[in-house]
C-alpha cells in the first residue's frame, strides 16, 4: 500500500513540476535565443545547396548570423512575445561545424521518410551547456527540401539549468528569396511569424 501511495505521489509531483515549468515559461518576460541547430538536419537535394563544404562552412553559419544581422526583420521580442530576448548562437555554431558531410544529403524518397522525434530533441538539448537562469529557445532543423519546397524545424523551449525540454513542436515553412542563404532564411522567418500568431 505504501508503495502504491509513493508511486502516486511521484506521478502527481512529476505532473505538477511539468505544469509549473510550462506556466513559468508562459509568464517569463525574457528568454535566450540559441539559434538554429543543424546537427541532425538533412538536405534534399545535393544539387540545390552547393558542395558539402559550402553548405557546412558557409550557408549553415550564414542562416544563423543573418537573424542577428537583420534585427528589424527578425524582431525576436515581437515574434515570440517576450519583453527581452538575449542572444547566444555560439554553441549552435560550434555544434554545426561538426556536421557529417557524408550524411547530410538525402534523395527525395529518403527525405520524405526522415523525421526527428522528442527523444532526439531532448538529446540535442542536453548538449547545450550554458550559464543562464531561465528558459531558452532553440530551432532544431530537421530537413530542407527543395523539391517539397519546405523547411521542417522543431521549435524547442527548454529550461537551461536542468536542460529539460518544456515544449517542442515540429513546424514547416515555405522558403522564398533570392540566393541559397536568403531562400532558406525565408522558411525560418515564416515559422517565426507563425509562432507570433499562436
What does this structure look like?
With 198 residues, this protein is of the alpha/beta class. It has helices spanning 2-27, 52-69, 76-80, 90-96, 108-113, 118-125, 179-196; strands at residues 30-37, 42-44, 84-87, 135-145, 150-159, 164-173. Strand 4 (135-145) and strand 5 form a beta hairpin. The longest helix has 26 residues, at 2-27. It starts with a helix and ends with a helix.
In short:
This protein has 198 residues and is α/β, with parallel strands linked by helices. The chain contains seven helices and six strands.
**Shape verdict:** globular
Cα separation of the termini: 45 Å
The biggest beta sheet reads:
6 strands, mixed
Which residues sit in consecutive blocks of at least 5 with pLDDT less than 50?
1-20
Q: Would you count the extended β strands for me?
A: 6
Written as H for each helix and E for each strand, in order along the chain, the element string is: HEEHHEHHHEEEH
Helix content: 40-55%
- The fraction of residues in strands falls at 15-25%
* Sheet/helix structural class: alpha/beta
- Total helical elements: 7
- How many structural domains? 1
Mean of all residue-level pLDDT scores: 88
Rg, Å, rounded: 18 Å
